């Protein structure tokens, strides 16, 4: 069974369809990455999967059941979303932010429990933020701040996590830091992770499953080797490139041709033997 599934899903803003009659399966326990040009509908699709955008038509299934039939709290216990560029109230500490992930479990009958405390502790430990627990979120570096928001989603205790461009505005070292963290969570806890990424090479390095969004639909999906081709990049990004192999990880690597310079001779591809 897929973690998330869409059936003939149509999404729109006003009279303009963004996604049209889409059938999509998100594999359970894997990392899925949405790629596509700006305005292609990647973030819109991600938001709809979290029930933040009501479909114009079609349906979304969470664990095989219509997501529309569940209460907001029930969905929040099974699926967490981290939107692009979240902001915290001034002065809110890392610990206080992580605790917000436990709000779906609170009601007038059940107050803060030992389980809540343990889940927050585990989330801070997983993101290596325990030493910064009492620091205000707005005083942290970009990478630390993003880890604090991820700690909140982890404290929510869901099997599925959706992230909209989690590496945006981060420098290269912090991008790798965040993606390594998500990869480790998937490896050790089999969390289903779905995210939007702009960097094709990082998408190929970390994803098990890639979904290319273009022209109101999905034009390709599968493993990085299956999806990332010169034809796909030309169709989706209107760019010529060469696809070679990442010398460290053996995953596909996109080398774009500059539009303002004469293209060089193609680089001879070398086979990388992984030890």
TrEMBL record:
One of its GO terms (cellular component) is plasma membrane. One of its GO terms (biological process) is iron ion transport. Residues 4-240 form the ABC transporter domain. One of its GO terms (molecular function) is ATP hydrolysis activity. It is found in: Cell membrane. Pfam families: ABC_tran (PF00005). Keywords: ATP-binding, Cell membrane, Ion transport, Iron, Iron transport, Membrane, Nucleotide-binding, Transport. Coiled coil: none annotated. PROSITE patterns: ABC_TRANSPORTER_1, ABC_TRANSPORTER_2. It is a peripheral membrane protein. This is ABC transporter. It comes from Brevibacillus reuszeri.
